[in-house]
Amino acid sequence: MSVQPDHVPAPPQPPAPTAAAQLITRIRSHHRAAQWEPAFERDWAKALEDSRTTYTLTPLHEVVRTWQMRLDTAPAVEAFAASGLDDEDGVDLEQVLGARE
């Protein structure tokens, strides 16, 4: 008999159908829009292509979740950077959010 987990964690809720549109609006209103909008568009295009080949919306949902986290944490990151504290012992963002492909 093989050991099976007692429960399987529920997958995260998919973003709302309008989440990507709301996200691009948030990105465009941010003071870093000139840098972030092309990056989001690149990530979205890659996820869209991945979705077309895999027939799943998961890559698109991951892009939305990742960018929502980035925008939600941007004020704290900017405040830390502006504080002038030493950040040499920091954690790489990819360790927190996962590697981007």
Describe the structure.
This protein is an all-alpha fold. 63% of the residues lie in helices and 0% in strands. The chain has four helices and no strands. The chain has helices spanning 19-29, 33-54, 58-83, 93-97.
How would you briefly describe this protein structure?
The protein has four helices and no strands. The protein has 101 residues and is mainly α. The longest helix has 26 residues, at 58-83.
Architecture blueprint of SSEs:
Layout: H1 19-29, H2 33-54, H3 58-83, H4 93-97
Helix pairs in contact: 1-2, 1-3, 2-3
Radius of gyration: 17 Å
Helical proportion? 55-70%
Q: SSE order, as H and E? A: HHHH
User: In one word, what is the shape?
Assistant: globular
Q: How many DSSP E strands?
A: 0
- Poorly predicted tracts of residues: none
The rounded distance between the terminal residues' Cα atoms is: 37 Å
Structural category is mainly alpha
Treating each run of at least 4 consecutive H or I residues as one helix, how many helices? Answer: 4
Give the overall average pLDDT. 86
Major sheet attributes: none
Q: Strand percentage, roughly?
A: under 5%
Give keywords.
single chain; mainly alpha; 101 residues
